[in-house]
Amino acid sequence: MKFTAQQIAEILEGDVDGNPNAEVSKLSKIEEGFEGALTFLANPKYKQHIYNTKASITIVNKTFVPEQEVETTLIKVDDAYLAFSKILEYYNSVKLNKVGVEQPSFVSESASYGDNLYLGAFSYIANNVVLGDNVKIFPNVYIGDNVVIGDNTIVFAGAKIYSESIIGANCVINSGAIIGADGFGFAPNDEGGYNKVPQIGNVIIEDFVDVGAATTIDRATLGSTIIRKGVKLDNQIQIAHNVEVGENTVIAAQTGVAGSTKIGEHCQIGGQVGIAGHITIGNNVRIQAQSGIGRNIKDNETLQGSPAIKLSDYNKAYVHFKNLPTIVKNINDLEKTNGNS
């Protein structure tokens, strides 16, 4: 699909400086631009590339003034980075705008769906499933009994959504994600083994949530595992049974959250963080990568380490840790001096 500079400027509410009929059909980095590509300049560090980029159209800030001649057509906007993000979103929506039911696929007679459904081949829609308008289900997806999925949600290839799960509107469930598998519940028995504790709850995912590839969110033992509005989960994250993640919290890859832990709103959790079960993490908490959290955390704390401590304390302690061999030598020398005196 091709767009002219004028069409893009109208979408972004920007101004064209150059050829309004310049056409693009691809996107590129500014340093890798080629004819027919759209790019952007937001970071001044890349400013030199605008004078030799081969991209046909470049989005720039309105404050940008060329210091020499540029060949690329400019579209001037208030915020080039935000504008390019908007174009990416628009491009993605056009690319993913598929409609229709491919065969072979299975849709239960008791399932219902809204307008503009896309259902990819080899997908399975079980009994009493309810799908909203503009839902996109890509190939090889399994959706179990009584699942509800809201408007404009996309479920990419190979995802599995177990029975009773409720997913809101405008969500993205990436490939390989598993929503609603049994929580890890076992009780020791008299024979030295373990009996399975039935997990009869569900998963609730509210609106505008992104779930990364191969991320797993377990169903609750009783009640619900809840992912609140606006949460962004990276790839390969484990969310255990009865966890609650507050609104607009972001969690990076390979983090694990154990059962019944409550995470507050607007938290930022780095990669490979381990969070113990049955604890509460407050709002606006920042946890650095590879930290271990085993206690309740108050609002607005920033933590690092395992077990995690305040970031400022960690940095101070790490200075001494790096100097530990010198400190030990000094102590030994001092003891020898005192012993000989």
Relative strand content: 25-35%
Q: Looking at the chains present, what oligomeric state does this protein adopt?
A: single chain
Rg from alpha-carbon coordinates: 26 Å
| Strand segment tally | 40
Per CATH, the class of the largest domain reads Mainly Beta
At CATH level 2, the architecture of the largest domain is 3 Solenoid
Distance N terminus to C terminus? 87 Å
| CATH superfamily placement of the largest domain | Hexapeptide repeat proteins
Question: Explain this structure to me?
Answer:
With about 350 residues, the chain is an alpha/beta fold. The protein folds into 2 domains: about 5-95, 3-Layer(aba) Sandwich (Udp-n-acetylmuramoylalanyl-d-glutamate--2,6- Diaminopimelate Ligase, Chain: A, domain 1); about 100-315, Hexapeptide repeat proteins (UDP N-Acetylglucosamine Acyltransferase, domain 1), CATH 2.160.10.10. About 15% of the residues lie in helices and about 30% in strands. A hairpin with a 2-residue loop joins strand 39 and strand 40 (about 310). The longest helix has 17 residues, at about 325-340.
Main features:
341 residues, alpha/beta, Udp-n-acetylmuramoylalanyl-d-glutamate--2,6- Diaminopimelate Ligase, Chain: A, domain 1, UDP N-Acetylglucosamine Acyltransferase, domain 1, 2 domains, twelve-stranded mixed beta sheet, ten-stranded parallel beta sheet, 40 strands, 16% helix, flat, Hexapep, lipid biosynthesis, N-acyltransferase activity
Quick take:
This protein is of the alpha/beta class. 16% of the residues lie in helices and 30% in strands. The protein is built from four helices and 40 strands.
